[in-house]
Phosphoserine phosphatase (Oceanimonas smirnovii), 327 residues
Amino acid sequence: MALFLNELHERVVQWQGVLAQQTYLWQQGKWIAGQLPATGGWLVLLAEQLNKQAFVSSLQVLDEAGVNAELCKVETVAARELAVLRLSSWSPALKAALQQQATGWDVACVPELPSSNQPGLVLMDMDSTAIQIECIDEIAALAGVGEEVAAVTRAAMEGALPFSESLRRRVAALAGADASIIDAVIDRMPLMPGLTELVTGLKAMGWKVAIASGGFVPFARHLQHQLGLDAVFANTLEIVDGKLTGRVLGDIVDAEAKARILETLAQQHGMALSQTVAIGDGANDLHMLAKAGLGVALHAKPLVQEQAPVCLNQLSLEGVLGLLRAR
């Protein structure tokens, strides 16, 4: 039995009935009943509403690359729609071509996906990832040095400055500010869309979830208490007599530290790195994204978009839950 794209509903989620009894293999312009003999990679298409055009564009890329695909399932996760395909082969060039076509949907083209049926770990950045702000920029604005600090933050996230140097420079600008502004920022700290759904979904799967942040401990601990996170790692601002001194205490949580934290947590919980997911948006997240079994860039800076294994640009953190439910 063959299926033709022009016979299928415009909304991909409506294909569920067609797939209920049979899997289909894409060959020579149509779906035929069958399965791939082996998995060479995975392709996940995600959108708020996933339409057939995402398939048409993606299948054209697969055809040009000589890659066959088995349509495994379509489903709705956290009110977002996704489709999962097993691929006969994977390459960085294929991933890049599929991403270039993804104008109204998100795409993950990876050699392997973590399994939601096994224990796993998600480690995420905090500022502009778990929350919608850069906390140090908000502190600086209240301290009257907002523009100066924000410019350094942008340079660091884009990879133009070493992170540790940029952090020390920004913190030094805060010397003498009243420490109460930390609580003022916490009181109005907006969560990233999809964060609550992601954490709830991870807990239901029995996964661990933690934060490794180049930001600061009070904000990370607030999130830990609010969401029940398993662990948080961040930097400590020195405070003397109720004032910020402009110094950071201890080792800085930089790019290398984030990657080490991922590896250490996986070892502590007896998990293979293939069962880890890292999420971030800045250049200081790239080592962590590369080391994880699945590295996801969330609305990321251009440098990170170029290098990250997966980029989510349409969806937010709920898209990560979709990727974990894909396999």
